[in-house]
C-alpha cells in the first residue's frame, strides 16, 4: 500500500507541474511568433488585399470587370508566354539538376565535388534580380564577353543565328542559372535515399543498369522529380526583377504587365493589377500545393 501511494503523484506535485507546462508552451509560442507575424504581414494580409482589390473598381465599388478583363487577348498572351517560360525552365532545370545531383552523389567523383556543388547551389539559387540580368547581358548580350569571343575565335555569331538574350530563349536560359541549383538542393535528399542494396539485388537477379533505373530508381525518384518541377515552375512564374531588368517591355510576360499596371505611368490600373496578381497566386499556389502533396507521398514511400 505504501509503495503504491509513494508512486502516485500528489495533488501538490500535479499543481506544480501545470505552471511548468504552461511556461514551456508559452515559450514555444514565443519562439514561433516571429514567423507567424512575418507570414501575417507579408503573406496573409497582402493576399487578402489582392482578393478584395481584384473585385473592386477605382472608387472601391464591387465589380467583376477586372476578372473579365483577364481574358483579353493581351493579358492571355502574357499568361501564355509566362507559362511557357516557366514550364521550359522547370523541365530543363529538373533534368539538368537531377544529372548534376546524380553525378555528385552517385557518380563516384572526388569527395570535394559534392560540398562544393552544394555550396554553389545554395548561393546561385538565390542569385536573381538586377545582378543576374546584368551578368547575362555582360556575358551573352550583343556585345557580351562570350558573344564576342565566339565571334572572334570560332566565327560564330549568335545573334546572326537568331539568338537574343531579350527573347524567350534568352530569358529561359537566364532562369536556368537559379533553377538548376535549386533543383540540386531539392533532389539531393531523394538521390541519397537510393540504397546500394537495391542495385545489388537487381544485378544479382540478372537485371541490367537500364532495368535498375527503369524499374527501381526512377519510380522511387519520380514523385520527388515531379514535385521539384512544380516548385521550379512556381519559382520561375513569380520572378519579376530578373525579367524586368533583362527584357524591360520587349517581352510581354505577366509579371512585367502586372508591374506596369500597378506602378506604370501609361497602363496604370491598380485593381486590374490586383486581378493579375490574384491569377498568379492561384497558379503558383496550385503548383506549390502539388509539390507539397508529392513531397509527402515520396516521404511515405521512402519510409
From TrEMBL:
Gene3D superfamilies given for it?
A: MetI-like
Alphabetically sorted, this entry's keywords are: Cell membrane, Membrane, Transmembrane, Transmembrane helix, Transport
Positions of transmembrane segments: 26-45, 85-105, 117-137, 158-178, 216-234, 241-262, 274-294
Q: Which SUPFAM superfamilies match?
A: MetI-like
Which residue range or ranges hold the ABC transmembrane type-1 domain?
Answer: 79-293
Which PROSITE patterns would you find in this protein's record? ABC_TM1
Topology within the bilayer: Multi-pass membrane protein
What residue stretch is flagged as signal peptide?
none
Question: Localized where?
Answer: Cell membrane
Family, as annotated? Belongs to the binding-protein-dependent transport system permease family. CysTW subfamily.
**What is the name attached to this protein's record?**
ABC transporter permease subunit
| Originating species | Chromobacterium indicum
Q: Taxonomic lineage per UniProt? A: Bacteria, Pseudomonadati, Pseudomonadota, Betaproteobacteria, Neisseriales
